[in-house]
Structure formats: structure tokens, C-alpha cells
Amino acid sequence: MLAAAQRAVWEKQSDVDLTTNVTKRDSDIRNSLQETAGTLLGQLASDQTALATTSDVADTQGTAIGTLQTCLEGVNGALQQISAHNKTQATADISSASGACLTLEGGANSGLVYPFDFPDPFVLRVGSLYLAYATNSVEGNIQIIESTDLVHWSAVGNALPTLPSWAEPGGTWAPSVLQVGGTFLLYYVAMVAGPRNEECISVATATSPEGPFIDNSDAPLVCQSALNGSIDPSPFVDAAGTPYLQWKSNGGAGHPATIWSAQLTASGTSFAASSPTELLTADQAWEGGVIEAPDLVFSAGRYFLFYSGNDWNSADYAIGVATCRGPAGPCTDLTSQPILSSGPGMAGPGGESVFFDASGTPWIAFHAWVPGAVGYPNSRALYLRPLSLSGPVPVVEPAS
């Protein structure tokens, strides 16, 4: 019964678009969640009374019921604060419920560390602090959470409170951050306002990793209109300190979905004179004609290009890896199969980013669906797993 209740809560919670614009759809979903939550809490209260006659079982079940209540109440509190247009308190309520909701989902057993909607994650370490950025959700355009131990995460807020004039509101995703001296650069995808809704990449700057990031641009950084748009930016800095940007073009005019790379200027806010080069195209059966979310990593003299493939809205989504001669390629797939796909506790992993902790250990951050709740509008939660780069093919290690 607890598992069924948990699943129902997840399905309802993930239906809610936690943005600053409270639409009629949000209101209907919010009312449905509140009605379901009230019913579940009533049922759980009755179960808790009945279980009180069996001491050992009652203690165990009572603890689980209390955890579920905490998760439900935190989510409901956040929804109420969104209705009141109090984003700060909504963020605090989500953070307070995170631990309880995480416990219900099995937590560290699968690598799940943040049980709320957190798609396309990017993790940046700044000293002893880890900051994770993701596609819009509770706090608007780009959301941020932070941690000091990679286990406990708290919501920070909206990294990008204002969009440039050319961008369509409500259409930002896939952030990544690069530090250049005392400046932090946020690369992200936005839709150009207008009938075409073209998908393009832009860059915003801040003096703090928490933001606010400011984008005063008159136009995007790159669009590739002939290839149906450019998405999923990811920065890379080589051993000489030269910055590059990798991204994905959607494909068009007879050209398949492709991952590109181009050198940036020293400031990281524009491209150097050279034209972009192709790194990889969709050519493996498991990819289903789609590759995206590139992340270039250098380790022990080798360049690894991690990427996602297949339909993002399904359990077939997965993570692959290629090896590259350098930041400008060429790159070649290391295996004909993904290195991470659906498994216990997760479905459709992707949107990955690789980072190194303070001890130099590599980790891979990615989003995934909770099994049994796959596909939009369900949530894609944040997972972290250790990553081994020492062998011929990188290996995603089990969660500890």
C-alpha cells in the first residue's frame, strides 16, 4: 500500500509545472494533487491506527508513514506558496521535503540524490561547494541546487531571472557553467520569440556561481537555422587554457543530428574565427537517430565525449561515450552499446555531465525517470554515480 501511495504521489507531484506563471492547468493539477494527498493522508492515518496493535510492525510502518506525510506536506506547502507567488518560500518548502521524498524513493541505492524535477543537470564545483544547474522548474528559467557533500542538496533559486528581449519566456533548458577568472558564464538554450520558435544557444554572465546571471544580448550565440536549431551547450577548457563549446544541432536538410565543437574567445562569450567542426553523428542502432547532451572530458591523456541518445521521453534514452583526438575531434564511438541505460531504480538516464570532486574522483550526474512514471509530465530526478575512467571504456560504477 505504501508503494502504491508513493507512486501516486510521484505521479501527481511531477504533473505540476512549478513555475512563476500559475495557469489554469497548474491550478487543476494542484487541486488534484491536494485532493489526492488529503485522501492518502486519511488512509495512512487509519492504517497507522490499525498497525498500532502490532508493536514491531507498527514502529516500522509508522516511521514510513511519517516520512510519506513529510514528503506530501512539503510538496503541498510548495504548491500553496506558488499560488501565493512566493517563490522563495516554495523553494524552501521543496528543500525541506527533499530528504523525506528521497527516502521514499530508495535514495542512495540507485544514485538518486534529489527527488524532484531536475532535467539536464550540470554540476560545478567551486571550492568545497557543489552547485547543480538544471532546466526550468520550481524557480523559473534555470534552477540551482547546492551541496557540500554530494548527498544532501538544497534549492537555491533561479539562476537566470530575466531573459534577453529576443527569447520566448518559458522555453529555457540545458544549462552549463564555465568559470573564467572571476566571471561565471551560463550557457543555455532559449527559444527565439516568433512563429518559428527556433531553438538557439545563448550565454549570460555573473560574478557569483549562484547568479543572478545577466544576458543583455541582442541575438543568440549560435542557432544553425539550416539544421533546425542548436541545443545542449557544454563548455570545455583544454590543458593550455583555451575554451571550447560543444553542442548539438537537431538535424535537417539531409544532415543527421550532430554534435559540434568550436573554439571560444578567451572571454568565453563569443566564438573565435574558426568554423565549428563535427565531432559525432547518430550512427549507432541504440541511438534511434538521436544524439545530444554532449560533455567532453579529458583524463590521463585521453578525451572522452559523453552523450545521450534515443528518445528523451522514453525508457530507451541512454548514455554513450566516444573517444576524441582533441577538442575539435575527430571522435569515434568506443562501443556499440550505451554505457548506462535503464536499470533498477531508474529509467531513461541521460542529460549527463561529468565532474571531479575535491579529491579528484570523477562522477557522472544525470537525470532519469522513476520506474513506473516514465514520460512527460512526470519528473526527471537528479542521480549521481561514481565514474571510472581508467579502463579502455569508462564505467559508471554502482551507487555506494
Q: CATH H-level name of the largest domain... which superfamily?
A: Glycosyl hydrolase domain, family 43
CATH class of the largest domain: Mainly Beta
Rg (CA only): 21 Å
Oligomer: single chain
* Series of secondary-structure elements, N-terminal to C-terminal: HHHHEEEEEEEEEEEEEEEEEEEE
Structure description:
- The structure is a single chain.
- This protein has two domains: 2-104; 113-396, 5 Propeller (Tachylectin-2, Chain A), CATH 2.115.10.
- It is built from four helices and 20 strands.
- It has helices at residues 2-14, 24-51, 55-83, 87-104, and strands at residues 112-114, 122-126, 129-137, 140-147, 154-158, 167-180, 183-192, 199-206, 230-237, 243-249, 258-263, 277-281, 291-299, 302-309, 318-324, 331-333, 347-356, 362-369, 380-388, 395-396.
- The strands form five sheets. Strands 1, 17, 18, 19 and 20 form a five-stranded antiparallel sheet that branches. The chain has a four-stranded antiparallel sheet with strand order 2-3-4-5. A four-stranded antiparallel sheet has the order 9-10-11-12, with no helix packed on it.
- Strand 14 and strand 15 form a beta hairpin.
- The protein is globular and about 45 Å long.
